[in-house]
Fold this sequence. Notes:
Elements lengths: L6 H8 L2 E2 L1 E3 L5 E3 L2 H10 L7 H15 L5 E5 L13 E4 L5 E3 L2 E2 L2 E2 L6 E7 L2 E8 L14 E5 L15 H13 L4 E4 L3 E2 L15 E5 L25 H17 L3 H8 L4 H16 L20 H9 L1 H27 L5 E6 L8 H6 L7 E5 L9 E2 L7 H6 L3 H11 L4 E4 L7 E6 L8 E4 L2 H15 L2 E4 L9 H7 L4 E4 L20 E4 L8 H6 L1 H8 L9 H20 L10 H14 L4 E5 H4 L26 H6 L2 H11 L5
Parallel strand pairs: 4-10, 11-12, 11-24, 12-15, 15-18, 18-21, 22-23, 23-24
Antiparallel strand pairs: 1-20, 2-3, 5-6, 5-9, 7-8, 9-10, 13-14, 16-17, 16-19, 19-20
Amino acid sequence: MTDTIEPLHALADEAGLQRHWRDADGRDHVVPDGTLVTILAALGHKAATPRQIAASRKALQQERERLPAMVVADADQPIALPVSCQKAELTGADGTNRPLEWRDGTPLAPSEPGYYDALFDGQPTRLAVAPPDCPAPPRDKGRPWGVSLQIPSLRGARPSRFGALGELAETAEALARVGADALAINPLHALFPGTGEQFSPYSPSSRLHLNGAMADPALVGLAPLPQDDGGELIAWDKALPLRLAALRQLYDGLSADQRAAVTEGTDEADRQHAIYDALYCRFAPTGATGWQDWPARYRKADSRTVAAFAESNADEVDFHLFVQALTRRSLAEVQRRARAAGMAIGLVSDLAVGVDPGGSDCWALGDAMLRGLTLGAPPDPLGPLGQNWLITSFSPEGLRRTGYAPFIAMIRAALEHAGGIRVDHAFGLARLWVIPESGGPGDGAYLTYPFEDLMRLLTLEAHLANAFVVAEDLGTAPHGFTGMITARRMLGMRVLLFERAADGGFIGAQDYEPLAVAMTGTHDTPTFAGWWSGTDLDWADRLGRLAEGVDRAAAESIRDWDRGLMWATLTGSSDRPAPHDHGAAVDAAIAHVARTPCALAVVPVEDLLGLLEQPNIPGTSTEHPNWRRRLSAPLADFAASGELARRVAPLNHGRSGG
Length: 658
């Protein structure tokens, strides 16, 4: 069939680029040929001439016809192989081989999920075998509920410039006392050390490693860090350099044995990340924002120059390794304390959709990552200009070449000390909108990912960790996505403000899907008090983001109609509170979520406290204090007042899920 298609279009299809795409309004679009050529070149497939296209297609075909570094299958199901196979064996730990069973001329995967060494016609590879579905949230006490929060916003018993894992441990214990089973936290991925300029948790340096600024030595029996109190908003440009200096002072005061006790169990990947952080701290003062700005001889992680730097700066590298290990041990202690306090789940980690192109992952993982491409969203009626998130992710072909090792390591890191994981923009497991570095959001195309393999691996890792998976599915899903996550028993997200009925109202609690998380909001939506009061409209007006042709008064009129629809759904009454009386509206929203049959109910801490301001407004940076807001007091203080217990009473009463 492809022989009749123009060779460039055939190459794009074979490389996973989707030439046709449909926007949120159902309108069809075609990616221009020039865009295809540019993106294909970034993917490593030259396509400027017919000769280059032919050579690229031949190379792709040869790659696809080889036995891959990892074969991924479902337990007790036929194994799909790109090559014919007459003999299939597994190699045991003792080195002996045992044959696989066959069905209809095809080898069957073992019935026990896990990773195996395998031989197909004598060729060695790894075989990953996934169970049919993911674990579900525990229901020992009935339907569990939890609180979502941004760790830096927290306050604890001691003053601090921002919340870290010590404050999270205190918060977990306070919320456990009022019945919470889970804490859904912001991504804890590694950021850039010490400068305070790149602090968004969704634009990390690495998803394989942790944010060292979150470490709390007091959690693991070391001296607490000296701190002073911060204000209502976090001043990251001051707070992060001070935190790094305090960690260095702690490190310098420890004996070699104390340091070794903390770093025991670290591996070569941890050390490589520590080398990156040491280099980043060396070159950041010169204006370098990532490894691309470093001198050329430092841009490859395996270069002799980098090895020489690590050797001559061993103490600096060891310090960053210590910070990474300290953070991991701190996180383990938070999870231990959360479970000991009575939480059935404890932490639910958050997996960002990508990383900063100048960060540790792109430096260390090489061709396993996309190069010259960033991620975003295409222009459509909901966003006429499109979006460029200025992050990147794995290369689909790089993942296949590496036997999915970086993806597996990323999932494993996120689940190491958590009872569940939320996958941000889970559509990215199937496709991502990729944009050439030289272009705008409209110059991109959708790049296909090995969806079935990634879903199997995610299911397998969740099984091994006995953790559930939340697949963030807000927006227009790619074809087949919803069916796949449903089949794997992953939980979708059902956010109150988005759950509209066919008549324009809001759906009743009983109509929420059981295989989902019911939520009053997320970090990217207005708080419920902010929505009810119109605080979000004030921000939209201030930022010039109201709908075209709609002024603040018209927006208020639309919102007032929606308040009526919302109140009728929440209470069955038409006599709704005034916009300024948002407390009663928040109570009703939480009670609504508590009545749903969903497998898990989650309330953002801002809704738990009835706050007006949200942590983040998507599409802004300095225009709004994203990721800088702090709570006014520790959660333990709010709990002591009895107000928290009153507000969460419906969640405790609604554990039966409806």
